[in-house]
Amino acid sequence: MKKKILIIGEKSFIGNNLFNYFKKKLTVKKISYNKFNQLNIKYINRYTHVINCSLNPLYTKKKYNKKYDIDLKIAKKLKNSVCKFIFLSSRHVYAPKDNIKELFKEKPISQYGKNKKITEDLLFKNLRNNLLILRIANIIGDRKIINSRKVHKTFIDIFFDNLKLGYVINNGKKYKDFLTIGQLSKIVIKLINVNAEGVFNVSAGKKIFLSKLINWLLKYNKTKTVIKNITKSERNKIENKSFYLNNSKLRKKINFNFRLDELKKECFKLSKNNLYEKK
Q1: Per residue in 247-278, pLDDT tens?
Q2: CA distances from 181 to 73, 82, 121, 139, 198 (A)
Q3: Torsion over CA of 137, 81, 127 and 195, rounded to 10 degrees?
Q4: What are the counts of helices (DSSP H) followed by strands (DSSP E) for the chain?
């Protein structure tokens, strides 16, 4: 059956990038959450997959409440549909550590992670096998290109905010797991094409040292930058623990190999777009 994708979230960074990538390869439509609410099941059944990229800002900060959970509301509408729902979850459902597999016990430490895990469990109850959950690592990409809305700040947002103040944080030997927005788009379309379901870690699957990443992001920086050592109290306010996800389940399902040079190229592009001064 020909794949037809409905993306919810017109102002979403991920949603817009998925749409721009998908439209060259298959049938795809992008709408707002409010517009989706107006659709009937007969219309929705024209599509094979529904991806929600919209998010209530209160969902990221407040204790879980169903009224903030857009994904659950969508899932309830899709309960009697033939569409497969793709839920964009997060690596925040895990406690930070090395080589995290999907079967590891989830122990989220952030409210955002706790909320995502609650939503995952509720979606399974409502949709059972008609569900694909993607636990996504940090995504690198330029929001300026599509003028997307910022619901919560990413590593990149925080990095450039700090750089405007004249410093970058000394991350020592800290590492995390990153993907480019282009790599994420390729993974999602491959999972759609093989009718994947269940839970997958979507990640590089290896340690990406922040010191290396920051050097790439500073490629076009011409101003004097201070390397700041943060205090213990400041460290407690940010996520400062190393981690990476195991993506072997993903690689068994689709043909995907993470390429570090693609991440480096994306960081150079971000650096140029944000720091390069035109003469």
Answers
A1: 999 999 999 999 999 999 999 999 999 887 54
A2: 26, 28, 26, 6, 22
A3: -50
A4: 11, 12
Cα distances (Å, whole numbers) of residue 204 to 11, 22, 99: 26, 21, 11
Give the residue ranges of DSSP H helices in 128-275.
155-164, 181-193, 210-217, 232-237, 248-253, 260-275
* pLDDT tens digits along 107-154: 898 999 999 999 999 999 999 889 999 999 999 998 776 555 556 678
Four-residue CA torsion sign, 260, 264, 270, 273: negative
Copy the structure tokens of residue 28: 């795809």
Sheet holding 198-202, edge to edge: 27-31, 4-8, 49-52, 84-90, 131-136, 198-202
Distance, in Å, from the CA atom of 36 to the CA atom of 82, rounded to the nearest integer, reads: 16
Longest dimension (CA), the chain: 59
Distance CA 181, CA 141 (A): 5
**For the CA atoms of 96, 102, 103, 108, what is the dihedral angle to 10 degrees?**
40
Among 7, 278, 21, residue whose Cα is nearest residue 145: 21
| Mean pLDDT within 23-41 | 95
- Residue showing tokens 């993607």: 134
Length of the chain measured in residues: 279
Instruction: Tell me the C-alpha to C-alpha distance, in Å, between residue 3 and each of 49, 110, 153, 224.
Output: 8, 35, 33, 50
Instruction: Report if pTM > 0.85.
Output: yes
CA distance 69 to 55: 8
